[in-house]
Amino acid sequence: MKIIRRMAITASKLLSKKLKARIKSLLNYGGLNIDVNYYIGLALLLGIIFGLVAFMYDLSFREVNLATILISIGIFSLILGIFILFPYFKSEQRAKKVDERLPDFLNLMAANIRSGMTAISAMHGAAKEDFGVLSEEVENAVSASMGSESYEDILSLLLKRINSRILERIVKLLITGMKTGGDLATLVEGAAEEVTQIRVMQGELITSVRANMLFIVLIIIAGLPFLLTVSIFFVETIQNLQTQVGPSELGGGVSISDITPEFLVTMSYIIIIATSLFASVLVGAVVDSSYIQGLKYFVPLMIISIIIFLIASNVVPNVIGTLNI
């Protein structure tokens, strides 16, 4: 285990400090207490190993060509991408949980302030209730900054562990209120109400576009595979006619001998994968307000589309054949 760790840390030196700093932030936001050098180095090692395995496996069946190299690079990139996206999705999941509990937390904090507690004590007292990730991170931030007793330091530490735009906005508001000497309890209650309004507006927006989004996704995952199947069947039919009667007797110089059904099947899979990726990004932008978040829908959409394509490949020829077209 120590050897693997040492190799991973050595491999991490291949990456820039800027990239490692970004990944370290993602690990912090995701609540993953892992050494960034070990984490990203392990990703590189696994990517290289699986890429080489795929290269050697493909090499046992055929000579080295562009496809072999692209497959190996693709597997390496896929593994590296998984290691980078995992903490990102984890951080977004934590941020979503924090946003859900934030209004109740702020209201309890305001009540503690009105009862005579200081801002730090009020925050710490509110964190003792079960607010999940928010309670855990507030307690950690308070414990880490006990020496300074600075309200601003605690909030700053909180932002380093939770990647929430709503929380960041509220923290800036509270820090400004503390510096200007306003009524903190009223300010915190106002912040809680603002968070509630933001979440209500987000819910209404998602509801208003959900029907249109469902229609678009339905066309992509169901309509597109059927259209591709019809195109392949059309090419097969024309080629069968050319074989039976000859291209000259079809008239109009019809000739699609350069386009084979096998080529169209390959292109269909590429189109389905690309379209599923586009659809997932679109859904993520609307539902989660994040293009990257949409990638979690990519695999399910792709699998469903491919299954429909395979079913349509068997159904469409039989249906059209019964119509005697």
Automatic annotation (TrEMBL):
Q: How does it sit in the membrane?
A: Multi-pass membrane protein
**Got a GO cellular component term for this one?**
plasma membrane
Which keywords does UniProt give here? Answer: Cell membrane, Membrane, Transmembrane, Transmembrane helix
Cellular localisation: Cell membrane
Domain of life, per lineage: Bacteria
Where's the Type II secretion system protein GspF domain?
Answer: 105-230
TM stretches of this protein? 36-57, 69-89, 211-235, 263-285, 297-316
**Does the keyword Transmembrane helix belong to this entry?**
yes
Q: Does the keyword Transmembrane helix apply?
A: yes
InterPro entries reported in the protein's UniProt record: ArlJ-like, T2SS_GspF_dom
> Main site of residence?
membrane
Q: What is this protein called?
A: Type II secretion system protein GspF domain-containing protein
